[in-house]
Amino acid sequence: MLEQISRARSAGAHGIVTGDLSLDRTRDLIAAARPLPVTFHRAFDVFPDRSEALEQLISLRVERVLTSGGAPTAPEGADEIRKLVVQANGRIEILPGGGITPNNVARLVQRTGVREVHFSVEDAEKVRGVMRALK
């Protein structure tokens, strides 16, 4: 992973997405990525105590955390995502991901208070639909 981060930086990447359940390993990956911003991916959802894990990632100065709130999809984990947003209090971005569609994105943003969302793009129409739903 360290080599991949080095190659991504050299190639002009604008940020790094990574995740490791070991705090020491995560610290090394973040150090290798700097000065690029770092997003911790959905491995976050397997931490038994997401509240404590969030504080640890904040202390490591991770910029954002990708999460479905520990649920199979972000809409299903909306209550947990909202709790994380409140706990984060602007110190880190909470980035919901998983199962976000044009039909549920606006409600998810309203319910959780997030400022960003992550979704997979299967086709251009899905992107247009999400953008319309957020307007």
How would you sum up this structure, described in words?
- The chain is an alpha/beta fold and 135 residues long.
- It is 44% helix and 10% strand.
- The chain contains 6 helices and 4 strands.
- The protein has helices at residues 2-10, 23-33, 50-59, 78-88, 105-112, 124-134; strands spanning 16-18, 38-40, 64-67, 93-96.
- It has a 4-stranded parallel β-sheet.
What is the compact description of this entry?
The protein has 6 helices and 4 strands.
Quick tags:
135 residues; alpha/beta; four-stranded parallel β-sheet; 44% helix
Topology:
Layout (H helix, E strand, L loop, with lengths): L1 H9 L5 E3 L4 H11 L4 E3 L9 H10 L4 E4 L10 H11 L4 E4 L8 H8 L11 H11 L1
Parallel strand pairs: 1-2, 2-3, 3-4
Helix pairs in contact: 1-2
Helix-strand category = alpha/beta
Average pLDDT rating: 92
Lateral strand order in the biggest sheet: 1-2-3-4
Oligomer: single chain
Whole-Å distance between the termini?
Answer: 38 Å
What is the approximate shape? Answer: globular
How many strand segments? 4
- Write down the Rg: 15 Å
Largest sheet: 4 strands, parallel
Percent helix among the residues?
40-55%
Order of helices and strands: HEHEHEHEHH
Low-confidence stretches: none
Q: What fraction of residues sit in β-strands?
A: 5-15%
The number of helical runs is 6
